[in-house]
Amino acid sequence: MKTILCAVLAVVFSSVTLLPAQSTKTPDFTGVWGTFTAGRGGGGDPKLNPPPAGQLVLKPEYAKPYEARRAVEAEASKRGEQLATSGAQCIPYGVPTMMSVAVYPVEMIQTAKQLTIISEAFSEVRRVYLDRPQAAIDDVAPGYYGRSVGRWDGDTLVVDTIGIKPSVSGYRGMPHSEQMRITERFKLLTPDVMHDQITIDDPVVLEKPMVYTLAYKRLPNYEMVEFVCDNNREYVDEHGVVRMKVKDK
Amino acid sequence: MKSRLLNVLAAAIALAIPVLAHHSFTMFDTTKQITITGTVTEFQWTNPHSYIEIDVPDESGAVKHWSIEMGSPSILQQSGWKFSSLKKGDKTTLVINPLKTGLAGGFLNTATLPNGRMLGNGPGRGPQK
User: Using CB atoms, which residue from B16, B44, B72 is nearest to A214?
Assistant: First the structure.
């Protein structure tokens, strides 16, 4: 009897000692995530809202044309016109903009070796490798999604992305060079609320890194909707203004 | 109170704002709403936008064709729309913001389906499901 009691206590004790190991288990981001503060899954505890975005500080030679472009866009908007954007022409947003397109959700599929992120808008896909080192910037062909690798910092997944081509619009249309490096910190604040803190660093274009945070709320049972941009009836006219085609009869 | 409200607004502006999915709506005159009633010639359940193509007779019987832009299927389903909500030949009444150019096009606010059900155009635009 005493032997049995000792055995039971041993099992209980070993279970208890296992708990700390379980609590440090890396989180699983698998699931569909919607915008936390607006649209699907909106509302919630305001304490879980993302912190305010940092300030975008461009080097003077990039700030002047950027501000001039913003002013031209604002003037066009006052006239009731929108100047051409990549989105209006159904060109994908790429990293990091695809992480927050209107109220469209993102789906995350996580395995031990890879985190795959799919944005519903434009069906964009990015892959984050979790089992290998990052390459040198000069070895990555510039593209929309670049090359992303991730590593665990406790309960936070730190994702490093390089290789985004300069024509892919950055935060609020900011310019960037091929030297841009994006660091994201994915973290679960609760089992159903996730933050993605995005730091954009570009020694060529930025005076200091630009930091902003996106907040997501889990959308249980949501089925991603197909998004193939095959009926784009917006076009850009000879003045660079976005127009809508109508079917005149 | 006013300054508190301004602070809240400033904080909201400082948050990262999602980029527009496709385009802004400045091409539509959102200060005007017009109502058109007619017969659906095509319901396009497509991306980046869905469209209702509709023939609208005037008082003299002359028919004018309109192209009405809607949200994407993902957005529309949040207002209760399905790919089969409208079909060719259906009679429907649409409330729209017309194009500023004066061409026969607009942006949907609400649609009244043949069964009398009224649907909006996604979150913040008309009745929700």
Answer: B16
Q: Which of A198, A213, A244 sits opposite B27 (nearest CB)?
A: A244
Residue B28 lies in a domain: yes
Closest CA–CA distance from residue A115 to any residue of chain B (Å): 22
Q: Is residue B35 part of a domain?
A: yes
Backbone angles phi, psi at A159, to 5 degrees: -110, 130
Based on the structure, what is the number of domains in chain B? Answer: 1
pLDDT tens for each residue of B28-39: 999 999 999 999
- Contact, A121 vs A101, CB < 8 A? yes
- State the CATH number of the domain containing residue B85: 2.40.50.140
Q: Which residues of chain A from 126 to 165 reach within 8 Å of chain B, CB to CB? A: none
Q: Is the peptide bond before A96 cis (omega within 30 degrees of 0)?
A: yes
Q: Which fold has domain A31-244?
A: Lipocalin (2.40.128)
Which of A53, A38, A46 lies closest to A189, judged by CA?
A46
A73 touches chain B (CB under 8 A): no
Residue B101 lies in a domain: yes
pLDDT in tens, A82-99: 888 888 889 999 999 999
Q: Per residue in B22-50, is it b (16+ CB within 10 Å) or e — as a string?
A: bbbebbbbeeeeeebebebbebbbbbbbb
Task: Indicate the pTM of the whole model.
Answer: 0.85
Selected residue of A100, A195, A242, A246 to mutate for chain B interface (largest B Cβ count, 10 A): A246
The parts of chain A modelled with pLDDT lower than 70 are 1-24, 37-44, 248-249
Decide if B16 and A244 are in contact by the 8 Å CB cutoff: no
Of B19, B29, B104, the CB nearest to A93: B19
